[in-house]
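DM from R.C. (forwarded with permission)

"hey, sorry to bug you on a friday — could you get me a structure for this? deadline for the figure draft is monday and I only need the backbone to look sensible"
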Amino acid sequence: MSDRTLSRIRAWLGSSQLREGARLPPERTLASSLGLSRAELRKALLVLEAEGRLERKVGRGTFLANQRVPRSGKGSGGDIAALAERTGPHEAMIARLAFEPNLARMAALHATPRQLAELRRVADAMRMASSWEAYEELDAAFHDLIAESSGNALLHNLHKILNGVRMIVVWRRLNPKDTAPTSDYHSFQEHEEIVSALEARDRHGAEKSMRKHLQSTLDVMTAEE
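My reply, with the result:
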């Protein structure tokens, strides 16, 4: 993804006259009007979300963030894009292993009933994903919600940067012609184990389940290399 792509979308946002909380046009419409592919648009939206300029809500669309939400510093979007260009899938998984198990442990204490219900809904929706692309969007939302459920705004924002980088890395690998995950895909059960531990307020179990999930994903990636 080029800086020109980000600049084009930032310019569009600046001239769109959208109010805080307003929904952006559907991705297909916006990509067409900006002369971008949907893949390029999605990478840019992930960067802008990590900056705090946008909010992506699964099943609802992308919205202009409330300006009272703290944004990353000037140039952070460029930093995220640059990090993604220097980051491979293996590096992204190692970073997640170092960070996300502790977020799951904290979420077991602080997640609200609404957040737990949404995590269960997203975990169920992943089994119904019609493509790898749809699955990855749900997976990103799942892990972001766990970070939000940790109850620590700073850690949540740090996770947004990590999630933004790793999703850009993932989009590079996706093939639009790919089919959906098979019904026995290992992550389905692992996600459900994480949710069950969170629902039980089991800190150790949530941390252990998250570590197991990320390690198994890393093992699969390593075996494919």
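R.C.: lifesaver. Residues 94 and 218 are 8 Å apart (CA to CA).
me: no worries. The first strand starts at residue 54 and ends at 57.
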